[in-house]
Amino acid sequence: MKEAYVNYTIENGIGKIEFFHPRSNSLPGTILQELAETITKAGKDDNVKVIRLSSGGEKAFCAGASFDELSEINEFSIGKKFFMGFANVINAMRKAPKFIVTAVQGKVVGGGVGLVAASDYAIATNGSDMKLSELALGIGPFVVGPAVERKVGLAAFSHMSIDYDWYSADWSKSCGFYTKLFPSFEKLHSEVDTLCEKFANGSLDAMSELKKVIWEGTENWDELLEKRAEISGRLVLSDFTKNYIKEFKSKK
To answer: Mean pLDDT across the stretch 167-172?
Structure first.
């Protein structure tokens, strides 16, 4: 089984960031921290004009929070720290002065929906269905909520949060998560490469100013997402959540 990783390379002005975890690209705290740090690094790198975000493999884009790590949380401070991992990634994406273009090659769950929502431009395959599963766990999509609501509006966010079922890639595109859908992994990445090359040849100053405009009104997110992480950090300690995760893992 492959080891988890976050890879960062630069090619012709494109900062390529790829994360991977053998459990359907789920996100433990170590990967979340490295991902946030790498996005921040790419944002500050003078050799980078656009950031290309993707996950490894050709199946799920991201299965959300690591259940192995969630099951080990036994006190509030640890729970808050874990969910701050998602907050830090979203804030790093928000603050990066460069467009973040995300390639979504498969299904997206929980925190992964937050990554897509925090992207400036996301392109996906036809099978990239989405689900905000947090309410089923008893924790709710509190940390990713602001990013999702900003991207697709309160109505769509409410639908996904309350009815935590799968939503198709077509529905997700119609709401604004995705800009385009493609029938294959190869066509997806070809389109993302073409788009990143175009941005890499553009004016960084103009793109940075446009990103400021696009993200206007989110200046309080450092404090907001920390408060949301505290809610999830408290709820993850409940018997409901502990039992749900135990039952889920027993079926694996």
So the answer is: 98
* Model confidence, pTM: 0.96
Instruction: Supply the DSSP symbol for 83.
Output: H
The count of other CB atoms within 10 Å of the CB of residue 197 is: 16
Spell out the domain ranges in the chain. 5-185
Report the candidate in 177, 121, 120 with the shortest Cα–Cα distance to residue 152.
177
pLDDT in tens, 187-237: 999 999 999 999 999 999 999 999 999 999 999 999 999 999 999 999 999
Q: How far apart are CA 178 and CA 184, in angstroms?
A: 15
> What superfamily does domain 5-185 belong to in CATH?
2-enoyl-CoA Hydratase; Chain A, domain 1 (3.90.226.10)
Hey, which bits of the chain come out as E strands? 5-11, 14-20, 50-55, 100-104, 108-109, 121-125, 130-131, 180-182
Tens of pLDDT, residue by residue over 35-72, are 999 999 999 999 999 999 999 999 999 999 999 999 99
144 within 8 A of 116, measured Cβ to Cβ: no
d(CA 9, CA 78): 32
**CB-based contacts of 239: which residues, under 8 Å, 6+ apart?**
none
Q: Which backbone phi and psi does 185 adopt, to 5 degrees? A: -60, -45
